[in-house]
Amino acid sequence: MHKDLKEFLKQKKLFFEKKLGRGFSSHIFLVKNKKGKYFVVKMEKDDSTRLNMAEKEAENLEKANTIGIGPKLIDTDFEKRIVLMEFIEGPRFSDWVFENPSETILMRFVKELQRQTKALDKIKLDHGQLAGSGRNILVRKGLPVIIDFEKASCNRKCHNASVIEGFLFKNPNSAIAKKVGEIL
Predict the structure, then answer these.
(1) Residue 44, C-beta contacts closer than 8 angstroms, at least 6 positions apart
(2) What is the Cα Rg of the chain in Å?
(3) Which residues share a beta bridge with 159?
(4) CB atoms within 10 A of CB 89
(5) Tell me: the pLDDT tens digits for 171-180?
(6) 21 closest CA partner among 37, 1, 50, 41
(7) Does this chain's domain 3-86 share its CATH topology with 93-183?
(8) Residue 55: helix, strand or coil by DSSP?
(9) CATH number for the domain whose boundaries are 3-86
(10) Cα distance between residue 116 and residue 181, in whole Å
């Protein structure tokens, strides 16, 4: 385990559970407190070419949290390049949709996702990575939780709602759009 992560966990009285994955510029870890509550630590890789990943993730996630979107930002340590956030238990949307949710459940999910993307557009926070494989949308109790705000920006033109509309309904080459169409 990286010494900065070890120090951070000790300081926050958290315990390492497992590595959940890694992105282009970060590692993602599952940790828990003494009471057994789980959290996620996102830690910038030593060789990351992205500047200020932790600061960008925290700033954008904090802005999204002001309108009830994304996992809750819990803490940061910019010196160690670490962001601590709420753990969202649930599958990725790209997996969940192929488990054949009912029309009613999927419609509720889609309406809530559209509400969230319009709300992000309203506060001028463009996520930038909502389409594609659907990896940045988790499903908790049948509802969407948008994650991974590291590349989000307040400087780009916001088009979260139109990106999601295209992703869910209009891409003729997308297995996800095809599946959504079959169910709805």
Answers:
(1) 25, 26, 50, 53, 54, 81, 82
(2) 17
(3) none
(4) 11
(5) 888 999 999 9
(6) 41
(7) no
(8) helix
(9) 3.30.200.20
(10) 21
Please state at what angle helix 175-183 crosses helix 103-122, rounded to 10 degrees.
Answer: 120
Residue closest to 74 by CA, chosen among 7, 14, 163: 14
97-151 pLDDT tens trace: 999 999 999 999 999 999 999 999 999 999 999 987 778 999 999 999 999 999 9
| Cβ-contact 167, 130 below 8 angstroms | yes
Instruction: Name every residue whose Cβ is closer than 8 Å to that of residue 180 and which is 6 or more positions away in sequence.
Output: 97, 106, 110, 168, 169
Question: 14-48 pLDDT, tens per residue?
Answer: 999 999 998 778 999 999 999 999 999 999 988 77
Amino acid, res. 134: G
Fold of 93-183: Transferase(Phosphotransferase); domain 1 (1.10.510)
- Please work out, in degrees rounded to the nearest 5, the angle formed at the alpha carbon of residue 71 by the alpha carbons of 67 and 74: 100
Residue ranges per domain, the chain?
Answer: 3-86, 93-183
**Which pTM value belongs to this model?**
0.93
Residues in a beta bridge with 138: 92, 145
Query: Which residues does 70 contact at the CB level (< 8 Å), separation at least 6?
Result: 61, 64, 145, 146, 147, 149
